[in-house]
Every structure is written in structure tokens, then in C-alpha cells.
Amino acid sequence: MIRKxxxxxxxxxxxxAAKAEWALNMPxxxxxxxxxxxxxxxxxxWWCVAIGIVVFGVMIISLIKHRKSVGAKPxxxxxxxxxxxxxxxxxxxxxxxxxxxxxxxxxKLEDSRDPDLSVVVTAYQWKxxxxxxxxxxxxxxxxxxxxxxxRPLGSEIDPNNVExxxxxxxxxxxxPKGKKVRxxxxxxxxxxxxxxxxxxxxxxxxxxxxxxxWFRAREAGTFRGQCAELCGKDHGxxxxxxxxxxxxxxxxxxxxxSDSSTRVAQVEK
Length: 269
Ligand SMILES: [Cu+2]
Known about the structure:
Shape: elongated
Structural class: alpha+beta
Number of helices: 7
Helix content: 40-55%
Radius of gyration: 25 Å
Bound molecules: copper (II) ion
Order of helices and strands: HHHHEEEHEEEEEEEHH
Strand order of the largest sheet: 3-2-1-5-8
Strand content: 15-25%
Distance between the termini: 59 Å
């Protein structure tokens, strides 16, 4: 029975469809920095694997080879200067190997100077507001209607049949491909967090504080995220959708949406 379930688990784990469905690792994302963050994560992961193999390897071999039943005699020394220097220096070197590229990437992540586009993102319980600083576009972005309808108990709508259930919005954040987009994040009420894994961004939106972050998407497409800070009863109902489009399409979108006042009025109604 156990063998059978183990085998089926193994087959399930090996099939590529299952892998996509059960992705455990972080995504590589669609920006240079998300790829860099992914590489850092993998580098540190493999260091941890190697350290785990060495430490547990030595431990297990020692336990087996030097057990009492085969007549092992305990050593009677209490200090070893060589061992102490080694187990101090080696971890320091490993930490430096990890810290140098991590610091380089973190400096790049913080460098939001000279953006092509700035968007003020204000979090509300429980929706997002986007204001394009130079384009005269602003709007609220709330949970999409099909999810809202399927949400309540007894709605008689099976959420499994709702496309992108709880991960879709009425008005997505639209940005041009290949352009540096700076986000200025704040909140109107409690602490929220703007999290889009494919952009490698998870940044808190805090009332009274403006947090900065940026991204430059190298692929067009729709990227989804969620609020990642427990912000009240509808925390799970304020998803984020970023649509990356070609620069021409972005210009056209701005032209049709720049009459912001009517749009905000429309959404608030
Ligand atoms: Cu929130």
C-alpha cells in the first residue's frame, strides 16, 4: 500500500504538468532583477544543500563507524585549535561568497532613479488605487466581478469554474514593456503589501510612509499577485494584476484612459 502510493506520488512528481501545478520554487520572473534574485536564491539553496550533505554525511558516518558495539573508544581531547579555526573561517568565507552578490543585487533593487513612468499605488481596505503621475490616469483596481459573485457562501457558483478566481481585477495596472516603472507605495488605512512574484516585488504599503520600488518588464503579458500583508477581513480579496504591453499599445491605452475624473467617479459609484 505504502509502496503503491509512493510510486504514484513519484510518477505524479515527475510529470511536467504536475510540476507546473505544484511549483514549489519561486518563479524566475520577467525582469532582469527577478532573474538575478532567482539566481541568488538558487546559489544560496545549493550552498545549503552542500552544507547539509557535508554535515549530515560526517555525522552519519561517525555514528555508524564509531559506535560502541564495534568497540569505538572515545577520544579524550577537549580542544582543537585547528578545528576551531576551520569551523570559524569556512562559514565566514561561505557567508562572504553569498553576501557580495546579494548586496550588489540589493543596491540595484533600491535604485529607482530616472524612471520612464511613475505610479502612485495607494492601498485601501480592500482594493488598490493607481495614479500615473505624468499621464493623468488614475483608477481603482478591485476584485473582478466573477470572483465577487462566486465569493459568498451559498452563491451556488463553483469557484473552480471561475477563471483566475480571486486573482483577477476589474482594472489592471497597465505598463509598457522595457520601460523603467517606479512605484510609490502608500496606504490609506492599514499596512498592506504589493506582491507580484513575477516582478520579484513584495513591498509594504504603509499609511503615512511612501515606499519606493521599481521594475522593468522584459516580456509582455499578464502577471498576477496579491496583497501579502494581513490587512483585515477581506485581505484575500484584493488581488493585483499587472498587464505589460508594447509601448505603442500603452500610449493608446493612456489616451483612452486619461480622462481620469470620470473614470474614478465611475468606479466609485
Ligand atoms: Cu491588503
